[in-house]
Amino acid sequence: MPTELELKLAVRSADLPRLQIHPRLVQVLASPPRLQAMRAHYYDTPAGLLASHKMSLRVRHEGEGWVQTFKTASGEALALRQRGEWETPVASDALDWAALAQTPLAELPEFAKLKTRLKRAFTMRFERRSWVLALPTEESPDQPTQAVFSIDQGEISVGTGARKRTAPLSEVELEHISGKPLPIWKLAQRLCADVALIPLSSSKAERGWELLRNVPVAPVKAKPPKLDAQNCAVQAFAASVSSPLAALQHNLRHLQAADVEYVHLARVALRRLRTVLRAFGPLPECTAHHKSVDAQRGPLRALGQLLGTARDADVFALETLPAMRNTLSDEVRNALDTVAHLIALRRTAAYEAIAIALVQPAHGQALLRAERLTYDLATSPDVAHGKKPPRPLLVIANTMLADAHEKVQHAARDLTRLSPLARHDLRIEVKRLRYLLDLWVKLYTDAQLQKYRDALADLQEELGVINDAAVAGDMLTELQAPQALRDAWQIEDQRRLIKALPRVAQGLAALDLCPAPWR
Q: What percent of the chain has pLDDT over 90?
């Protein structure tokens, strides 16, 4: 199957002049710039049949004629894409069905009916400036890696006349042509250090569909990896990183204060990603990737703090504050209006801080580093050559889960005497255990896990109630709420704690007694 390997990066128009004269880029240019006026029409059924199968079909005028391109994609939606691609020169923007019959499109049961169902869905017009690059390699100085560096600027449009809608298009593409791909990564990372280049997890076709549907794109959850007991540890690591990273990128790209689920699910995806790195990073089977894993920790922790600040403000404003109005007495309830105003300001500031961070070079570097790790894992010799793992994957999973279970029980010692900070640490250990359980879920049967998963979910919920109340108390102090309100909430916090702690103790005991396949 013909494939293409490309790395897509979003770039702001204001940063393009600085990018084009970047010393590292100038050093590897092997051709003068080529300018092309691109006009592309994308086709699909009204219901998006091709999009649902991760396919795209376009006919594009590239200055010298029309080219029909059919693409397939697999795996998670990351900035790095390895896709099937079939190109055919055509005389006009009409589809060449004989050529399409030689592609995976013909494997769809609906293929025979597509001639009447495929319609032009959206159009893209943009200018492409591209350069051929010759990237030197230490192993073969005389055989540099060849790539094409392109800058696309223009717009995506749907409809015509008064119904026309557009979205801007500004992105960089690094496409591998020949040689080792590693120099492409090094160049991208060097450019990201100085210019805000953000890995772009959605293709042009996907963004066209977003514009066409004209509805908010839903936030997404990370999916459990499709693991097999025959996988080696590196294969499992590679599969486990991709899904939370893709979910994180998707939710960050669409993040908005109007829908708090983007921040919530971005934070959950980030936590899952950090759990994966924490679990696999120290494994002896993953020694070659230790340095790369360690480099992720600081930037991802910083992003987590930003998302955490916004999420805490969201929960307080939208959940805790309404509960306070129904719980507290009339004499302190009036003070909540001032608190509501102050927390609204804090929410705005938290989202603004995230927005600023997301267009900084450091953010692009962090995401690109994570993408690089997924690539290195997927192309590791252990994966490429099917190296037999020194330990069966099931043994690794059992060990991880047993250790995580013990950490929960250890963190819960002297439960009734734990400080709020220690209870928070217990909640974190419970979440990590649940994320690990979700990670390995494909290796076990539902019968083996169901009771344990239910007990763990109940325990997490009880600890969440306690944590939300504690966070609310801290928030009232930080917002300098009237002392009467703080005192009233402290009483409510203690009431909830007295009610919830016995249930937490019961949950811990149930969890410890539950049959688990790793025991």
A: 67
